[in-house]
Write a structure and sequence with these properties.
about 170 residues, alpha+beta, 5 strands
Length: about 170
């Protein structure tokens, strides 16, 4: 009986640890960073020109959040030029409180819309044109990298996150 109780407790512990972090939480962001770094479209194609618009800092910053969870739930991804690639070097709680919108980005959308974009139901052009993705930053630059940007929007479909609001 004691062995069965221990086994059930272990299964319960595994199921608790296997639960996904909230979509757009700091924990989710760390996994999204790994997903970015494993995607050659993002790491290679954005290294050509996009990452070079960094104001001489050696990195670009992206803030994002789920509109229905509020601006206080914002997370950050820092993308740096490393060995000829655009690599995610940090993702989590906000470290750069001020964005330079000539090189950095702010994006937010309702949870439903992040999930739709993550599922590939539509890409960045449609998302922005219909107001499903709110976007601030260098728009001309973003237009020139729509292919890689579409890969970025697929990350919420690849990195599972639950629908509770990040704390």
């Amino acid at each position: 009986m004691r062995m069965i109780s221990l086994a059930l407790a272990a299964v319960g512990l595994v199921s608790l640890t296997a639960q996904a972090a909230p979509l757009m939480s700091a924990e989710w962001a760390a996994q999204a960073c790994q997903s970015w770094n494993n995607n050659p479209v993002l790491t290679d194609e954005l290294a050509e020109k996009w990452i070079k618009n960094d104001k001489g800092r050696g990195y670009k910053v992206m803030h994002m959040y789920r509109t229905d969870c509020g601006e206080a739930s914002k997370i950050e991804m820092t993308i740096s030029a490393k060995n000829g690639k655009a690599m995610c070097t940090y993702a989590g709680k906000i470290q750069h409180s001020t964005l330079d919108l000539e090189s950095d980005y702010l994006m937010h959308a309702e949870t439903k819309r992040w999930k739709e974009m993550g599922a590939g139901e539509y890409g960045p052009m449609r998302a922005m044109m219909f107001g499903r993705l709110k976007f601030e930053g260098p728009k001309g630059e973003a237009m020139r990298v729509m292919g890689p940007f579409e890969q970025f929007l697929l990350i919420p479909g690849k990195v599972h996150g639950d629908e509770s609001c990040p704390k």
